[in-house]
């Protein structure tokens, strides 16, 4: 009897362990944590009520390459070094991390609170242009929009603009062709050393003097920031298939 009693106790204990084990196995596995979807810059702009504009709209603002606030004002929200290397023609610099630094220069533009302003930066994942756009709206500017596709999109479709420091670096390094878009008589008097002359007013006959290599870097320039000649030549070169055209807007005066 003692043996049978002990056997019964052992079997009961084993049965209990089995039931407990089955009970634990039957518990459903915890549901995986739901991933938080990232909010795109486009969605953030919509939430901030900042309208997005396409390339064609920005191209209208650029116009002939000479700044005219009646067409609109472009603001580059990227760092100064990036802006210097290439930016959209006529654009002013206002880095998102140094807005206070560039604010005095912006105020000197004398824009009305209702004037048209478009910010841009490094493409659809770049928040810098939104940061600057929101800041401008906070300061009371009511007609602020964003070119979300930004510089990557612009560079695929049109020419860029560089600062004097960048132009000088290219000049010192060598191997880059500068193109003087002024008339031949003015070019003969003074030009950036090593330049070739492609006058904008003689484009149809002068374009045959352009180098054949369409992958090389070319830097058109003319008589300064109020001179549209270099922009005309740059635009025509892009139409001919030249891939790397950067206008040095400061030109000879600078």
UniProtKB/TrEMBL annotation:
One short Pfam name that applies is: Rhodanese
GO molecular function (one): transferase activity
Which protein, by its recorded name, is this?
Answer: Rhodanese-related sulfurtransferase
Whose protein is this, by species? Seleniivibrio woodruffii
Q: What does the record list as coiled-coil region(s)? A: none
- Tell me the first and last residues of the signal peptide: 1-25
Keywords noted in UniProt: Signal, Transferase
Q: Which InterPro entries match?
A: GlpE_sulfurtransferase, Rhodanese-like_dom, Rhodanese-like_dom_sf
Indicate the segments forming the Rhodanese domain, all copies: 68-163, 172-254
So which domain of life are we looking at?
Bacteria
């Amino acid at each position: 009897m003692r043996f049978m009693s002990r056997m019964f106790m052992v079997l009961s204990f084993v049965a209990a362990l089995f039931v407990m084990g089955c009970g634990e196995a039957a518990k459903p596995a915890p549901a995986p944590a739901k991933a938080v979807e990232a909010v795109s810059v486009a969605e953030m702009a919509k939430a901030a009520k900042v309208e997005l504009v396409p390339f064609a709209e920005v191209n209208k603002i650029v116009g002939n390459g000479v700044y005219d606030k009646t067409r609109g004002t472009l603001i580059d929200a990227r760092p100064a070094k990036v802006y210097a290397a290439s930016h959209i023609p006529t654009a002013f610099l206002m880095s998102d991390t140094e807005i206070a630094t560039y604010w005095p220069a912006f105020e000197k533009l004398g824009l009305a609170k209702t004037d048209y302003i478009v910010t841009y930066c490094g493409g659809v994942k770049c928040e810098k242009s939104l940061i600057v756009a929101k800041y401008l709206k906070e300061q009371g500017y009511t007609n602020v929009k964003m070119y979300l596709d930004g510089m990557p999109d612009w560079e695929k479709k049109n020419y860029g603009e560089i600062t004097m420091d960048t132009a000088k670096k290219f000049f010192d390094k060598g191997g880059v062709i500068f193109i003087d878009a002024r008339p031949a008589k003015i070019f003969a008097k003074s030009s950036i050393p090593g330049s070739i002359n492609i006058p904008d007013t003689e484009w149809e006959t002068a374009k045959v003097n352009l180098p054949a290599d369409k992958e090389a870097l070319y830097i058109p320039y003319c008589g300064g920031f109020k001179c549209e000649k270099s922009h005309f030549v740059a635009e025509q070169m892009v139409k001919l298939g030249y891939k790397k055209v950067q206008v040095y807007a400061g030109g000879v005066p600078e």
